[in-house]
Amino acid sequence: MQRLVREGALGDPFRSKARALRNETAVVSRAPKCRTPAREEDVKHNSRRIAEGLTALVGLVVLGCENPVATNHAPAPVALAATAVDRLPDLGMARLSGLSISRTSDGRRLLRYSTTIVNVGSGRFELHGQRSSTGDPLMSVTQRVYDDAGGSRDIATSAVMIYAGDGHNHWHVRDLQLQEVFRADGTSAGRSDKRGFCFWDNIRYRLTLPGAPQSPVYGESGCGDQGSLTTAVGLSIGWGDIYPASLPDQNVNITGLADGRYRLVVTADPGGWFAESDETNNSTWVDFDLYRNGRRVRVVGYGPSATIAAR
Predict the structure, then answer these.
(1) Exposure string (b/e) for 136-172, b if CB count within 10 Å is 16 or more?
(2) Residue 304 and residue 184: Cα distance in Å, rounded?
(3) Which strands make up the sheet holding 283-291, listed edge to edge?
(4) Cα–Cα distance measured from residue 218 to residue 144, given in angstroms and rounded to the nearest whole number
């Protein structure tokens, strides 16, 4: 028996099992591949279900689901924050008035007039002046712009404030207005020496504008005094600030001008320093005749007064 096993007469049981498995595999591999119609339909159905599942999974991932397999809810819509919109002022000039000729003690002839700067925009015109010490002769100026959400932002400007001790005794925005006389041919005939302007709500100009306060908001105290380190001046919507003809430097020297037709032009913010909703309506004018050797003046026409900007 031992010899038979050793010689392989009875065969190695492990080798026999391996041989049997190989033979079975060979038989199966040689068997014809017969697929019934029912089996074909099952394969197609399962393939279609797998494809649909993968498509849905990809769709959920694209939509941003954190766990697309674990939920069947659509992603919640994301709310976009509304952007606040600036409520900008719109500076202009009301009709010029009070034209007259005066003569000084040294023989100069002066054309006097009253000017009124106004705000016809959708927001207030507000400026803040600041200096670091009382030794500084100038204040830097920022413009504060408000928005429709109740907020505001400050804009640095090229403007400066100066202190005037000419009877006003407060701080002025330098060159806020430009006042100039022109001849009929368009050449300049003179310019006002008036350089500084402090402004606040003192003229009810157009209080029917949306958002216009019915009583003053800004007052003269905002212009500060000689010792001030800061100032805060402004014009509310629909309000204006007048500089009467009687104030110092509210004139143009017309000494030596011949009789004839002239135009006085006044422009608010001629340097374009301040943010506005409309920069094209800042000027107005009045045409006048000089006669009797320049001793008399007669108004012959007015330019446009400040109008509401297109909205």
Answers:
(1) eeebbbbbbbbeeeeeeeeeebebbbebbeeebebbb
(2) 18
(3) 188-191, 177-183, 260-268, 283-291, 296-302
(4) 14
The sign of the dihedral angle between the CA atoms of 164, 141, 244, 228 is negative
Query: How many structural domains is the chain composed of?
Result: 2
* Within a domain: 2: no
Q: Are 297 and 98 in contact (CB under 8 A)?
A: no
pTM value is 0.73
Residue 272 burial (CB count, 10 A): 10
Nearest to 223 by CA among 241, 245, 247: 241
User: Which among 190, 151, 158 is positioned nearest to 176, based on CA atoms?
Assistant: 158
Long-range contact pairs involving 216-219 (C-beta distance under 8 Å, separation at least 24): 217/124, 218/126
Backbone angles phi, psi at 40, to 5 degrees: -55, -45
CB atoms within 10 A of CB 112: 17
pLDDT tens digits along 245-277: 999 889 999 999 999 999 999 999 999 999 999
Cα 44 to Cα 163: distance, rounded to the nearest angstrom: 92
- 204-260 confidence digits (pLDDT tens): 999 999 999 999 999 999 999 999 999 999 999 999 999 999 998 899 999 999 999
Residues in the chain: 311
Q: Is residue 9 part of a domain?
A: no
Residues 259 and 145 in one domain: yes
Domain that holds residue 38: 15-79
CA distance 171 to 141: 11
Residues 239 and 159 in one domain: yes
